[in-house]
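Appendix B: complex inputs.
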Amino acid sequence: MKYLHLVWSALFRRKTRTVFTLLSVMAAFLLFGLLNSVRAAFANAGQSVAGASRLITISKVSFMVSLPKSLEMRIQALPGVAAVSYANWFGGIYQDPKNFFANEAVAPNFFDVYSELKLSAAELRAFAATRTGAVVGASLAQKFHWKIGDQIPLQATIFPQKGGGNTWTFNLVGIYHVANPSEKGRENAMFFHWKYFDEATQFGGGNVGWYIEKIAQPKAADRIAQAIDAISANSDHETKTQSEDAFQASFVSQFADIGLIVGSIMGAVFFTLVLLTGNTMAQAVRERIPELAILKTIGFSNRSVLALVLAESALLLVLGGAAGLGLAELAVSVIRARLGAIPMLPVGLGSWLQGLALMVLIGLLVGALPARRGMTLRIVDALAGR
Amino acid sequence: MWRKIGYVLSLIVAAVVPVIVLVLLPAWGILAAVALLIAWLALTRTGRQAWSATALAITTIPQRIGSSCVVVIGIAGVVGVLVALLAMAEGFRATLQQTGSDDTAIALRAGSQTEINSVLDHGSVVVLSQEPQVKRDAQNRPIASPEIVVAAAIPKKASGITANVEIRGVGEQAWELYPRLRIIAGRRFRPGLRELIVGKGAAREFAHTGIGSSLDLNGQPWTVVGEFDSGDSHNSELWADTAAVATTYQRGNSVSSVTVRLESARSFDAFKATIASDPRLKVEVQTTRKYFNAQSEGLAKIIRVLGTAVAVIMGIGALFGALNTMYAAVATRAREIATLRAIGFRGAPVVVSVLIETLLLAVGGGVIGAAIAWLLFDNYTASTLGANFSQVVFEFRVTPALLATGLKWALAIGFLGGLFPAVRAARMPVTEGLREL
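Resulting structure:
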């Protein structure tokens, strides 16, 4: 630690060069932070705390095939199932197809099962009492400047009304919040009564999209899932029950192999970075050969010269990298605040630790050759300029 | 004071204007600019001075090969990533765009945006195919295919995770309607039987799709009897007879959509007007080109924006690397440059020589990056979730236009990275430079 001053002044001996290198390192780690946030969002999809205690039952054929409502009572009767809820994808459009958000017709007890979607008691009562009532998330309400009491018209893409009308109008009676900041994306959805939907739709006929089961003991999840699927085995509506995590992970993995894309880009970035900072360090040490020789003359050991150069290159990487990750953190929070539903998680502790490890590792790697050169130089030759 | 501000401002203008021009210039414009530069180098006195200064600079590159590599590889990285990501967007767009044409039209229930959300009853199907604008075959039957689109969950070959594949039931006129479709192995399915033919892309991505294998659809066994290649997004699908699919999925006699061949592309407007004025029909028609284009728009745009954003950040990193290298190059050659100035070379040739050196390194990097992207990713197969909640298989496309875009980026980074060191080299006092070690 007592040599920090020495390392620092060596680093800023050539200000322009160090600043340019720092900016390059910053750009690399800014990219690392941003891409890692996207990758984490896809990898963590559905890994909420409550996930383990909820199961999702969909049709075995595909999640777009609906299931009969009559299953509700039979699932409810199974031991270990604390509550059964259900929902149906609506796929309505608000004004323009570009304004996409999830909208679902849900069971009366939906917000009991999804207790992390917070509504006030008054809003819950109003929702229960209003046939055409709807509840939206806070981020979505903010995006479209909706307030309680507004009428929200949705254009149906899948479910026209009886009589052929395509416009469904809902009364906004509640706005829910999600406390966990990393799950704010879930505030971009709208829910309304399945009962109203089923009565008014042209081809409804008492079907629901999927069931959600809340189970008392997460440990019994496998057994309960098998029991649920056994109810409709060999019928014309066989089911597939899985944990909420598994369901969302299988859905997300269909978009793309995000891990591969992010991995390839980061590979290209860090390869370039190693070369670039390696060149800077080599130049820095080459210029300072006589100085290093003087250090040795006044009694610095070979090993401490090695450590000085390694510390210098690690410091270079950590300074630039920390600035880059900080910038990434800022950028992610701005992007998330502006765009809402976007698959990006805040740059968390995990990313910082990973990033710091990478900075130190790359720093030591690029410092190794120049440091070795500094360690093995012979004082007489170096001072003579040979 | 004012002179200094003026100097900084003019330097910024000198940096920004050419980059903007470069971005806007088409490929032939760049070639013309290069030709002009060569003419200037060869024909004018200053040009010839600049050329000999450049030749001197280039011959000294091997002495500082390490730092020159930083420019080349830094820019290669930017161009490689940019071209690869744009090739992904381009491949997805091209696959869906090829699928449609102007002389076939698709009818969906009004309000539905994708086939999987649409339902048409039998009556509408009959009315639609009997419209006068629909082309007829040699036996005077309308060329129309009532189609059912459903998604089935099948495990993927690579990961074993189930993903949705699109099952498309097609009518018996489908072979007339999709003339590009060829059976590349096995045979066509027979009407009424539970037989499937599998698209080339789907066969590559999904398990249990080899000829002769059996697939479980909605609890019923289906047999794969052939493999087809249509050269478009239908390659990601499994095809069967509409009536057989309707039976398995309990659709009665309703279908998802009807695709018809029109007399010509010009008869679409008349076709649309006839349908709009028919009170029996509650459908929306569009040409298949428009339908499939709309499906590719969103995702292709997202990939393009993300790719450009990633490349901008990487480009900033590479720019500072190039600046570092070129400042160092100018510093090590300080005595050389000062000598040139002392024997009568003006400032402009010195500036031009440093710029040309950087641009050559940058073009080298751009070519390497574009070549790597082309070798690794041209025709690379990927798949994503399409509009019908099913996998769309597509191939990356590294087109000449994308390669040109990559080279433009390389030139822009090289120009910015070379300009400031070049100006410093030219403004360095000669006496100071000569004393430099």
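Chain A touches chain B through 50 residues (CB under 8 Å).
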